[in-house]
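REQUEST FORM: STRUCTURE PREDICTION
Request ID: SP-0412
Submitted by: Lab K.M.
Chain count: 1
Length (residues): 442
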Amino acid sequence: MGKSRRFRVPKEPVQAEIRDLSHEGRGITEVDGKTVFVAGALPDETVTFLYRKRHRRYDDAAAQSIDRPSAQRIEPRCPHFGVCGGCSLQMLSSDDQIAFKQGVLLEQFRRFGKVTPETVLPPLRSAPWGYRRKARLGVKNVPAKGRVLVGFRERFSPFVADMRECHVLDPRVGFLLEDLSSLIAGLSQPDRVPQIEVSIGDNAVALVFRNLNPWTEADLTALTAFARQHDVQVWGQPGNESTVHPIWPEQPTLYYQPGDSNVRLDFLPTDFTQVNAEMNGRMLDLALEMLAPQAEERFLDLFCGLGNFSLPLARRCAHVVGVEGAASLVERARQNARANGIDNAEFHAADLAAEGVDQLPWLRQAFDGILLDPPRSGAAEVLPALAALAAPRIVYVSCNPATLARDAGTLVHEYGYHLRQAGVMDMFPHTAHVESIALFER
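STATUS: Completed
RESULT:
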């Protein structure tokens, strides 16, 4: 009983001064000696907040009113900001957001890796609005509101936010939410469509509708009419990803061309591709500049996906070996290599976190450079095998500055590499997500 009272969420609002910004983009304050993370608050502000959840060492809260705003605060562009959980930093200018992210990266290097890059790169930036090509939208029929909700989840809640528009999604979808709501409301079982996956290529917009029950003929007619009217591809997904199939058109294609690579990469709407196409192109160009491939050199690309880095790199060097955990993406990479007439790239499926990975034959060859783009958990398990290769340069693309910093510390302090360059890339404007890139040399 005592414990439940201890963690009971107070209902009374609290006023406090915000002293700092957390790595997740929330204001930090203290109440009765305990840290409180306040969503929507900025340093040097006085805010009134409401508690959302209590924990042993800290509490979560959300700003109810900004009583004394920071000089940095701006008016959020999106009318749903603060309710929708998709963005957390719209109250900061793009310049202030990127400065915050650069600070997070450098602080994580110091804290987790005990390293400092010799050169801090200027941030890579792109258009801050309408950039998002990949998303998973929740769908919920809410009779009390008289409509089907389509959008991201609410902040602090599993409920779908009541949204009419989204300014970070590609506008072909961001301003289609109300039409999607009307479409699903008119289907035979609007309660049985829980999700729409958005996947956009250079050539087309694809929408994958998760359907828990089979479509009726009337449903398929409505979906096809919607696809034609809005010039989008419509796909169905009655089960897992292997069940995804086109509804209209019958034989759709999706592809993108990263940067100035002159490589076309075909993909399925459920394949992993980068969220921000413009930033992906700039990131590719920077990674290639860092690797500085020569015509006679060999490279290893770990966590290679469908060939986003591997195939453009293969155009500039003698040979590339790409390795990826998802067999479906490895097959897509091989298909893309053939379609682009690239015969100096080979691809293998392997769990790079598994024991014995260093015994696989492709990880016992000589390479002039290594590129890795691991998941949020980082690349700690494969670092000993990479160190044994003694490649003169490693380019590390990261979606989590904490695990990049940890792995940087290992490469520098245990394996004799130098952290030559590092910087942030604004892959996800208006969120606290920090994408970064680093160059290590022996």
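NOTES: Residues 94-113 form the longest helix (20 residues).
Reviewed by: T.R.
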